[in-house]
Backbone:
């Protein structure tokens, strides 16, 4: 992985880096010492080395079983129990992979749209399929509803016993409704460790089982993450990309750049951006502060939000994630008639054109006062993906500490749930129900 801060230099000078460096070093030390806010949730730090090896083998076995007996896998989860797996699968498999992969993968539990759920239901009902239901708490409403629906479908299709052998539950070791249900029905279960929060859980069974079931090599994924763990434990600030990234982000933030756009020129990175949005927003957006993360896919978004990036309010910076080498390239051929006027590109590859577009965009945006950071990997593979996952986890943890917040909690996620439960008259919410209806009716 290469971290390139060349296009931040005109916005962030050396003196500013020197000034913030000690704070970044202290933040990094607080993580190592497990001495600051959220220190009970630092299990992700050593995960690539100290993961549960016995469970890892069980994950691989379960993945093989799913691949052998199912044409489709329904993955049920939301937030941290969803985004990592989807990011990895969309990155590693060909575009529209459900039309070509041995096992189709469908994600539900991320919304409560009956249209969406019915669409997936109809796609899998006549196929052999398995379910991986994932919820750390075991009580999140959206995935719980989806699980009830797909569990019933499995039971009707295969009978209760075989259905149970096709259900894999990833949840807390001891508690929660999903754990109780899994024990009662004898589902194979996998654990979300207590000390790993949802958005930091992609390298636990939460991400690993669906990723492996999709046919992706999870050994290489862990090896890449472990290399990042080693590289990013370097205490020399100038040799540690996570520290440098955290420093630059915080300097830009203090200068009013409070929106970070994760940019890609490769559609396979789109869900990595979704994973990043959750990781950064839930880790940093609290106590009335934090950089707001968003994403853009270029060229698509150059023809929409590109206008605002170039000329709108100057409170943004971009972090480009790029892949240097493509899997397949296409050479643009000469056309005798040249009616489309494209012969000036004849003989050039599409990847070359894409790269020239990127260079042009970076210069235009920097000229428009938008700092650009670039994080690149040489190619699409599991190792590099594992490296990226760990890099961003470490960077956001340091960055949150530098900004004085607990990067490992997400209290703001509860507010909507409280209102929703009150409106749905959930037992235990009687008082809130009364109040919320009074508020709505008046
Ligand atoms: O980062 C987080 O902790 C959240 O986004 C959770 O992952 C999300 O709310 C899902 O929670 P659970 O796995 O308990 O169903």
Residues:
């Amino acid at each position: 992985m290469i971290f390139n801060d060349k296009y931040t230099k005109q916005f962030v000078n050396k003196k500013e880096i020197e000034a913030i460096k000690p704070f970044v070093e202290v933040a990094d030390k607080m993580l190592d010492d497990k001495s600051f806010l959220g220190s009970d949730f630092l299990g992700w730090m050593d995960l690539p080395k100290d993961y549960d090896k016995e469970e890892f083998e069980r994950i691989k076995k379960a993945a093989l079983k799913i691949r052998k007996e199912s044409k489709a896998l329904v993955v049920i989860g939301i937030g941290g129990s969803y985004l990592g797996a989807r990011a990895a699968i969309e990155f590693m498999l060909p575009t529209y992979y459900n039309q070509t992969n041995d096992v189709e993968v469908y994600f539900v539990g991320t919304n409560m749209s009956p249209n969406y759920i019915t669409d997936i239901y109809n796609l899998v009902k006549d196929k052999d399929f398995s379910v991986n239901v994932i919820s750390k708490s075991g009580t999140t409403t959206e995935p719980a509803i989806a699980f009830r629906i797909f569990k019933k479908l499995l039971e009707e299709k295969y009978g209760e016993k075989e259905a149970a052998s096709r259900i894999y539950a990833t949840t807390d070791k001891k508690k929660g409704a999903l754990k109780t249900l899994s024990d009662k029905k004898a589902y194979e279960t996998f654990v979300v460790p207590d000390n790993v929060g949802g958005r930091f859980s992609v390298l636990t069974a939460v991400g690993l089982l669906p990723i492996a079931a999709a046919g992706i090599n999870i050994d290489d994924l862990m090896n890449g993450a472990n290399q990042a763990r080693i590289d990013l434990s370097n205490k020399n600030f100038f040799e540690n990309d996570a520290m440098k990234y955290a420093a630059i982000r915080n300097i830009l933030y203090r200068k009013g750049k409070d929106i970070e756009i994760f940019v890609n020129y490769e559609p396979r990175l789109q869900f990595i951006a979704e994973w990043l949005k959750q990781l950064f927003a839930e880790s940093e957006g609290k106590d009335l502060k934090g950089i707001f993360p968003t994403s853009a896919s270029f060229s698509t978004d150059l023809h929409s939000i590109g206008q605002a990036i170039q000329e709108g309010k100057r409170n943004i910076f971009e972090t480009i994630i790029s892949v240097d080498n493509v899997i397949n390239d296409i050479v643009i051929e000469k056309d005798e008639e040249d009616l489309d006027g494209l012969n000036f590109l004849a003989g050039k590859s599409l990847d070359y054109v894409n790269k020239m577009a990127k260079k042009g965009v970076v210069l235009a945006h920097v000229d428009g006062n938008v700092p650009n950071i670039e994080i690149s990997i040489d190619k699409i593979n599991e190792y590099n993906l594992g490296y990226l996952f760990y890099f961003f986890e470490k960077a956001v943890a340091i960055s949150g500490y530098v900004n004085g917040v607990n990067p490992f909690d997400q209290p703001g996620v509860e507010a909507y749930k409280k209102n929703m439960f009150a409106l749905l008259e959930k037992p235990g919410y009687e008082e809130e129900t009364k109040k919320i209806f009074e508020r709505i009716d008046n």
Notes: The chain has a mean pLDDT of 97.
